[in-house]
Amino acid sequence: MTITDQLIKFAGVTPPKDALTMMRLSLFDWAACGIAGAREPDFADFVAGQLARGQGPATVIGGTSAPATTAALINGTLSHALDYDDTHFAHIGHPSVAVIPAVLALAEEVDAPLEEVIEAATIGVEASILTGIWLGRAHYQVGYHQTATAGAFGAALGSARLLGLEPDEIRNALGLCASMASGLKAQFGTMGKPLNAGLAARTGVEATLWAQSGMTAAHDGLAGPLGFGPTHHGQEEEVKPGKGDWHITSISHKFHACCHGLHAMLEAFGEARFCPDDVASIHIRTHPRWMSVCNIAEPTTGLAAKFSYAQTAAMTLLGHDTGAIASFIDAICVDVDVLAMREKIKISEDERLTETQVEISVKMDNGGLRRFRHDLLEPMSLEQRSEKLKSKGAAVLGDTRADTLWQVAQGDTLRDLTDQLLIS
């Protein structure tokens, strides 16, 4: 049975309670990131240009409505604009920003209850992660952005679940998606990276609607001969949808407003207790994967700073809040104290470490040596995660707005949620 056959069957399963609970947390996190992203002036012209194409029933974050395809594109882009949304390390991507905008846009067209949205998004996110695992490391390392590629298939399956497509229609949706799924790591550090997420969400909506209308595609456009996997450097790792613990339950939420590859380091420094004025040098060891993702040595913009070990390490050591969106501005890249601290920092790869681990050695001026280590996969209870997400939401949106958004994300009314998205 190919992954296509597995995903078609998987579209009809009932998600377990813990997977649905995690989806609720990710929905809140996604919405908070999207509302904050909609405030970014850099994307105003892009949004205006898309909205000029016409109105529709689907909510666009920030205060208007559009056709489902347009809303999915805009909302996917805006929710990834700050690179503050959730990640899955086995998937090697950001699952929610591709799937939730697609499912949510179609849900408003058919007036689906929020419970069905949560179920469909859970299926879609899990499918995105499974597809990312199936494509494997070679797909990512050669330059594809799995948030966009695997994410498009997850968006399609989640959309198909919401609309109740028949198995043959789902097969065609996945096949059509195979001709459109795209996105490159070359866009990292630019506005093109969040656009990748928006394109994945729109692709999921389009492929599903086209299949529903009767358009056909290759029998197995994902895994078959000359399909997406074989032609896009897929390693075809084994996946087992719905078997054992669902991968969505090990999603990693961001608590720093930068690339997730930097978070283990920032968490390690958060546990450290020393005066930065007494530091002679710092050596940060990380997994080789991150050297080509978030190791910009001399960033010149706030956006590029989000992909720099040396920059974010210097910032956090000097007391800049890396959990605050406002910290990542162009001016921080020319701050004299930050530049001086950056010069003391060395980054190197270490194959002994996993992608979620970091080791740090800090040599003090007095000759002393301090060592720190952190793993992002250290267990965190749902209660702890909830509290950290609430704090993050408050930092991004303010206490009152975050509390209201939390309540509607845990509720059962779709309109209550979309009303919150309309407020900029």
What does this structure look like?
The protein has 424 residues and is an alpha+beta fold. The protein has two domains: 292 residues, Orthogonal Bundle (2-methylcitrate dehydratase PrpD), CATH 1.10.4100; 116 residues, 2-methylcitrate dehydratase PrpD (60s Ribosomal Protein L30, Chain: A), CATH 3.30.1330.120. Helix content is 49%, strand content 8%. It is built from 17 helices and six strands. The strands form two sheets. Strands 4-3-5-6 form a four-stranded mixed beta sheet. A hairpin with a 4-residue loop joins strand 5 and strand 6. Helix 4 runs antiparallel to helix 9 and helix 11 packs parallel to helix 13. The longest helix has 28 residues. The radius of gyration is 21 Å and the shape is globular. The chain starts with a helix and ends with a helix.
Brief account:
With 424 residues, this protein is α+β, with helices and mostly antiparallel strands. It is built from 17 helices and six strands.
Radius of gyration: 21 Å
Spans of at least 5 consecutive residues whose pLDDT stays below 50 are none
| Tally of alpha and pi helices | 17
CATH topology of the largest domain: 2-methylcitrate dehydratase PrpD
**What share of residues are in beta strands?**
5-15%
Work out the helicity level.
Answer: 40-55%
Please give the order of strands in the largest beta sheet. 4-3-5-6
Q: What's the shape?
A: globular
Count of β-strands: 6
Mean pLDDT: 95
In the CATH hierarchy, what is the class of the largest domain? Mainly Alpha
Sequence of secondary-structure elements: HHHEEHHHHHHHHEHHHEEEHHH
User: Distance N terminus to C terminus?
Assistant: 46 Å
Please tell me the CATH architecture of the largest domain by its name: Orthogonal Bundle
CATH fourth-tier homologous superfamily of the largest domain: 2-methylcitrate dehydratase PrpD
Query: How many separate domains make up the residues?
Result: 2
Report the biggest beta sheet as strand number plus sense, adding barrel if it closes. 4 strands, mixed
Protein structure class? alpha+beta
